[in-house]
Amino acid sequence: MTSGSTREFMALCWLATHYGRPGTPTDQAWIESFFGHLKGEFPHLDLICDIAVLRAELDIRRAHYNGVRLHAGIGYVTPDQEHRGEGPAVRAARKKGLARARKRRIAYHRNNHTPEP
After folding, report:
1. SS3 at position 114
2. How much is the pTM?
């Protein structure tokens, strides 16, 4: 933060501030990642001029991002599932399902040979 008057105002209001170092987006990687996904997946948000409409749209996107969208960084579960402690069970069930699908696929191809032309 470079503004002395803003810094003084924040201190008078007992507001603690923390900012990443200039030029180091890795200091706040989680929010940089979120903004990158938000801008990439929903480019229409840049076109919204009404703040009420933008807030409503962001509420919808937040619910989708945390409750529906699978995140690679946490093993392809939603953040809500991970916070509720369901992540390990979801990942284990997925692993079992993939193993079952592989066995079925192998059995199908072993039993259904197609003659070569």
Report:
1. coil
2. 0.61
